[in-house]
Amino acid sequence: MRKLDRMNPLTSIAAAAMGMAIGLLVQFYLSGRGHAPFVPPLSLPVTLVFIAAVLLGFGIRLRHNVSKRTRAVNPFHAVRLLATARAGQIVGGLLGGFGGGLVLSLLGRSVPAPVASWLPMLLVFGGGLTLVICAMITERLCRVPPGDDKGEETDPETGPEPADQAAFRKP
C-alpha cells in the first residue's frame, strides 16, 4: 500500500484565496447595487471555533488511546477523524478567506465602517484560522507512533505511517 502524507498546506491556502475572492465579489456586488455590506452572523465564528475544539478533543483522545493502549482503537474511527481533519482544513481556509475578503472590501472605503459591521467579519476570519490550525494538529495526532509496528520499520524520511494506512495493528 502507498503511504499517504499530510495534506499539502497549499490546499488550505488555495481554499482561503477562493474564499477571499468570493467575499470580495459578494461585497462588490452588494455595494454596486446600493445595498449594505454583508455582515455574517456571530454564530458562524462561534460554530467554527466549536468545531475546531471538538476536532482537537477527538484527536487528543485518539492519541492518548494509541500511546497508552488504554482501550482498543477502532481503525475506522481513526480514518474518519483523519478525513474530518483534512476537510476541516479546507472548510476553515474557505470560510476564513471569506471573512478576510469581507474585511478587505471595507478597507478601500473613504468612510470607515462601524465596528458592528467589520467585527463579525474579522471574527469569521479568526474562526476559520482557528479551524485550520486545530485541524492540522488533529491530522498530526492521527499518525501512529514509530514504535507501534511490531517488527516493521518506518521510513526515516517520511516518519510514522498515517492512521489511514496503519489501521492500528493489533499486538
From TrEMBL:
This is DUF3180 domain-containing protein. Residues 145-171 are annotated as: Disordered. The chain crosses the membrane at residues 12-30, 42-60, 81-106, 118-137. Pfam families: DUF3180. Keywords: Membrane, Transmembrane, Transmembrane helix.
